[in-house]
Amino acid sequence: MWHVGQRILVVDDDPTVSDVVCRYLRLAGFEVGMVADGAAALAVADRDAPDLVVLDLMLPGIDGLEVCRRLRARPHQIPIVMLTALGDEADRVLGLELGADDYLAKPFSPRELVLRVRSVLRRAGAEPAPAAAPMLVDGDLVLDTGRRLARLRGVELTLTVREFDLLAFFMRNPSRAFRRAELLERVWGWDFGDQSTVTVHVRRLREKLEDDPATPRRIVTVWGVGYRYEMAT
């Protein structure tokens, strides 16, 4: 199943899409495995622990959203790039809420998919981290950016790649308001895209960080602008 390089599992029941995606990923130097349904995807993820999953939403049997949900319920957080139909905005948002790290709407450029995969892997720590990566501390919240670990009150948080990156960005830039478009560019590396991606990730971070997510104290909304991070100390 696997070829040479970092391991990517492609899950799509459309053989034309799968063949194109796999070909481009292999040309980019990745190991690539391919399955066509959700049950097989979960089995391969358990057996082989790929570095990243490219996951179509529309799958026979166990659909992509349920695969994402089950992968996110596991201790080892495998990065996920979702593939969605162009008009499936509600499913796309739900996928992000379930913990997908990125998404592309069909039809998409295979070259762009390769760039997104590389970006997510880089942010997930698949590339070596600097030897002296800084610790970010805000009261009882600690981020070890070298090991990509987050702890709140001594308890390790389960954060996706993008959630970790967004929180680290906020903590490095406290007390400053950022527009959603600016966060999309500086955290995701996109100069265009669906800004609801940022909204969903902020909501998920609040659920994990705030005592009362409805009245957040750390990640606050700046009406008409976007969001600001307020240090607890």
Automatic annotation (TrEMBL):
Residues 133-231 bind DNA. Residues 7-121 form the Response regulatory domain. The modification 4-aspartylphosphate is found at residue 56. Keywords: DNA-binding, Phosphoprotein, Transcription, Transcription regulation. This is DNA-binding response regulator. The keyword Phosphoprotein applies. Pfam families: Response_reg (PF00072), Trans_reg_C (PF00486). The keyword Transcription applies. Residues 133-231 form the OmpR/PhoB-type domain. GO terms for molecular function: DNA binding.
